[in-house]
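Final report, results section. Input specification for complex C-07:
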Amino acid sequence: MGVTLSVIKADVGGFVGHTESHPDVLAKAGECLEKAKKEGLLIDYHVTKCGDDLQLIMTHQLGVDSEKIHKQAWDTFVWCTEVARKLKLHGAGQDLLADSFSGNVKGMGPGVAEMEFEERTAETVIILMADKTSAGAWNMPLYKIFADPFNTVGLVIAPNMHAGFAFEVHDVKEHKKIIFNAPEEIYDMLVLIGAPSHYMVKAVYHRESGEIAAVSSTQQLSFLAGRYVGKDDPVCIVRSQGQFPAVGEILEPFTAPFLVEGWMRGSHQGPLMPVAVKDSTPCRFDGPPRVVALGFQLSSGKLVGPGDMFSDKAFDRAREQANHMADIMRRHGPFEPHRLPLEGMEYTTLPEVMKHVKGRFTDL
Ligand code: F6R
Ligand code: MG
Ligand code: MG
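Structure output:
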């Protein structure tokens, strides 16, 4: 059976500050999607949050970029914003950058990751969701999952994965894309995806079957708005098992926390900490950045689950390490490499400061 899995997310207001989502907002989203399911638009849905981001996980048969599904998500965010406004939550409606819906939520603020596929006999999917970081944060884990044999032994010993995967990489500044074949082109690819604020892995495909294996959200809120509206807080869908990496191969990269852009005021480097949904509450210096992973089995489009994958005790040490890395980074205060270089910061007083001190510079 052909099914489309759409994950559409937005920050429609934080509780408290930018740290969490309010239960009333989540309940409102649940009400809206329940109605859409009863009306037959959705096969199934799951509402969750990662930090202050509201996540709508939906299955249907209308394909990717469906106007009906995007409108449903947009309307849900609008209704949830009303709840957020009533509660005077912080930044109510912050990711809804347009006044009204115009065909597709892309370019309007929300983040989107969608894929359409024939449901397998057992269709395992993992949905990764992050807060206080941007879409480039998936580059390293996607590389490890689909191209690094030290992470994914299936690439070496599973005959149905041995031919490797193809990576679709987007140049988000020039709005161009390129496909790289792993393993033979990994050195070329790493030159680019090692610069995750410029080149982002958008999708991954199984090379023999051509099937979609992973897709990420690559919306760039700051480009869209032309002003600070927070980091994108991206999502990523990864298919698992059989010809795709095993669940444990998908989660393994998060056992070694790595530094990502985001954290306080979207202007710092900090470790990405894997946590259970209930622990996606970035409170220390508005962070450190968090990632949650929900696992589902699809059954004729029904979302059986979720399993809250990072609630596993085996990720305790990664959390401990991330806290230790956070201590080291925080020591730098407003200095690089904790604070982002001038061009990477979401907030900056540089133009005002320069205006102010310009006349005081003298030649060396
Ligand atoms: C980072 C983030 C927060 C805010 C900070 C200031 O992505 O959302 O760190 O930037 O709390 O928020 P405002 O400017 O809304 O008071
Ligand atoms: Mg927020
Ligand atoms: Mg957020």
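The chain has nine helices and 15 strands. The CA atoms of residues 23 and 273 lie 23 Å apart. This concludes the modelling results for the funded period.
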